[in-house]
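Researcher: We plan to redesign the surface later, but first we want a full-length starting point. Tokens attached.
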């Protein structure tokens, strides 16, 4: 529904150690939207009404205490590096609990999801946060259904977003919800950002390889694959390295790595292909050097894992210098 009438009050909840871009990014989106006809009234709020110091040491002057302000149309909770590493203090969670309950819509930026979860706001809801700490959010708050690959998630009137700049994506979505796609598109163009970026958080995440297997036998197989991703790593060939049955090798992979031999080989080749694309190799070169049977087989893996093509991935993350031929 597009809502154009009257001012829209946006409160941004901040506290000591808050990530500055979590505050400034969405605020710039709303401020820019005002240039195109929106009427967002933005205020900064802290737990007690005292000014706060952001993560960069910048002092943020706030407009008041979050508890003393009337209900907001939109209340944003910014994130901080502190709280994935430590428990959210009770007074911080308490400060946001009631304002979140009475806001027209409540949203978190990046690790602000930990504050909302600590306040019970995300109980029974779908949510996301930065890919690096999504597992921690899911472990610490099991009542929340974490979607680690999402850029942002809406569950009713509750919104959560991924790391830092994803707050801009979320703010654009909120503007679109209020004023429609044309105004939101104008804002995106003015800020030189995507209206909606392709793919999820997986395209930004670290390589998929985990810790080495515990058993000597399985470690021998994973070392063979890692040392030569282009080799013959069919199930029969891998089983032959250990002189075991294919069924026994499959059981080893399932028990220790929770995957199949074929999927493990695919993940190693995928990691290598990403690194090659990052270095400036062409997609065809990357497919060959990483051991994929063809470019098309690599493209299918990228589409399944990242929801983007190898070419689109390289445009985002490839080096400015092209790889030397040879």
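Model: Full-length starting sequence:
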């Amino acid at each position: 529904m597009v809502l154009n009438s009257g001012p829209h009050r946006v409160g941004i909840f901040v506290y000591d150690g808050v990530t500055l871009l979590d505050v400034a990014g969405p605020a710039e989106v709303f401020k820019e939207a005002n240039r195109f006809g929106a009427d967002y009234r933005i205020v900064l709020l802290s737990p007690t009404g005292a000014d706060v110091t952001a993560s960069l040491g910048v002092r943020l002057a706030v407009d008041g205490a979050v508890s003393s302000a009337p209900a907001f149309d939109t209340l944003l909770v910014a994130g901080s590096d502190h709280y994935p590493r430590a428990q959210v203090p009770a007074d911080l969670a308490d400060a946001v609990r009631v304002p979140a309950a009475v806001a027209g819509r409540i949203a978190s930026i990046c690790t602000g999801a930990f504050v909302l979860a600590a306040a019970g706001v995300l109980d029974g809801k779908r949510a996301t946060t930065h890919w690096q700490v999504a597992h921690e959010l899911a472990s610490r708050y099991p009542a929340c259904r974490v979607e680690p690959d999402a850029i942002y998630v809406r569950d009713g009137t509750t919104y959560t977003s991924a790391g830092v700049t994803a707050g801009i994506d979320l703010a654009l979505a909120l503007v679109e919800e209020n004023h429609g796609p044309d105004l939101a598109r104008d804002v995106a163009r003015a800020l030189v950002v995507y209206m909606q970026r392709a793919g999820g958080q997986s395209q930004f995440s670290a390589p998929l390889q985990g810790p080495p297997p515990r058993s000597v036998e399985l470690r021998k197989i994973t070392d063979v694959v890692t040392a030569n991703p282009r080799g013959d790593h069919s199930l029969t060939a891998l089983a032959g390295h250990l002189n075991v049955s294919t069924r026994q090798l499959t059981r080893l992979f399932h028990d220790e790595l929770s995957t199949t031999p074929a999927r493990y080989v695919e993940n190693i080749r995928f990691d290598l292909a990403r690194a090659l694309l990052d270095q400036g190799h062409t997609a065809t070169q990357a497919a060959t050097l990483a051991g994929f049977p063809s470019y098309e087989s690599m493209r299918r893996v990228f589409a399944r894992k990242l929801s983007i093509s190898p070419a689109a991935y390289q445009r985002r993350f490839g080096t400015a210098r092209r790889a030397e031929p040879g």
